[in-house]
Write a structure and sequence with these properties.
This protein has about 325 residues and is mainly alpha-helical. It is built from 15 helices and no strands. The two termini are about 15 Å apart.
């Protein structure tokens, strides 16, 4: 199959990806049938339980020995860490301040939140593989970035958003520890006994992951719909958000590729730098938004993450196909 045909096929897959379709269906459901009042409180509790399970499964699936092997490739791992939590966070901060006078406050803050998030796991690995990248390094880098991001993203966001009067409360920190880090640690502890059961049920576990994320998105957008926050975003502002996300993508993908070249990474590592550095994780973004922000704000703040998530898949498809073709050549 030629590179162009493969790119078209992958773009089509991005739009018809079951997880992407699930997210859009979740947002549509929240728009027409949001939860409110006592039902919203119950839904929030269900979301917290689902997020707990999500990170428990993450703890079960990540082999501890892989973390040790990843640290040996310190040049790539350090570059990814500094790029994801340094340059991309700075870009989110700059774009947020640039747009805060023309976009609703929470929508502009969503750009900052997006910038501080870690990389994806599954899609970054898939596109690194297609592009001829270092797949093993991609898997472990994404896992490390996500684990670090659970702690670092709220700290970075709080520090950078303080100028807008946004603070991360002690209660939010406690919820992060108890709903995200505690279950991950439990998963690591019980890995020896339960990991084989999880490995045998990959499809079921994947859908449990996706369902947990969808519940968090549903609760967040329900709060925004009930509050009327989404209705206050005009069509022009939505279009403007699309333009800013396009600029963010250019900074992310262009910056990651140039950084890999400046550091003289070899071909496979540079491709891994591209896809693991520029992509952003809604799997971390949705749970953190549900914990850090009030329901009436979380949906709007999460909107840039949803738009970026789809756009990164569409952009990654032709890039990976082209790089993979050049690597084979």
């Amino acid at each position: 199959m030629g590179g162009a045909a493969m790119a078209r096929r992958m773009i089509w897959r991005a739009f018809t990806d079951k997880f992407v379709m699930l997210l859009f269906a979740t947002v549509a459901l929240a728009s027409v049938l949001p939860v409110s009042g006592r039902s919203a409180e119950i839904a929030s509790d269900v979301s917290a339980a689902a997020i707990f399970l999500l990170f428990f499964l993450h703890g079960l699936r990540l082999p501890r020995e892989e973390l040790g092997r990843a640290l040996k490739n310190w040049k790539l791992q350090a570059a990814l860490f500094l790029f994801v939590f340094g340059l991309m966070a700075a870009a989110g901060f700059g774009l947020s301040h640039l747009m805060q006078t023309v976009l609703p406050v929470d929508l502009a803050l969503g750009l900052l939140f997006l910038g501080t998030l870690p990389s994806t796991v599954q899609s970054a690995t898939a596109y690194s593989s297609l592009a001829g990248g270092n797949v093993a390094a991609s898997v472990v880098a994404a896992a490390l970035l996500n684990l670090i991001g659970v702690v670092l993203t709220p700290v970075l966001f709080a520090a950078l958003a303080s100028t807008a009067g946004v603070t991360v409360t002690g209660d939010a920190v406690l919820r992060i520890l108890s709903i995200l880090l505690l279950p991950f640690a439990l998963g690591q502890i019980l890995q020896r006994w339960l990991r084989p059961l999880v490995a045998e049920r990959k499809a079921l576990v994947t859908w449990m992951d996706r369902t947990a994320i969808a519940i968090a998105v549903y609760v967040a957008f329900s709060g925004a719909v009930v509050d009327g926050a989404l209705g206050r975003v005009s069509a022009g502002q939505f279009a403007m958000l699309g333009g800013v996300i396009a600029l963010f993508l250019a900074i992310g993908f262009g910056g990651a590729w140039l950084t890999g070249g400046a550091l003289r990474l070899d071909g496979p590592d540079r491709r891994t730098m591209l896809f693991s550095g520029a992509q952003k994780s809604i799997a971390i973004g949705a749970p953190l938004a549900a914990i850090l922000f009030a329901p009436d704000r979380a949906g709007v703040i999460l909107l840039p993450v949803l738009v970026y998530h789809l756009a990164q898949l569409v952009l990654s498809a032709p890039l990976a196909a082209r790089l993979g073709a050049s690597a084979d050549g």
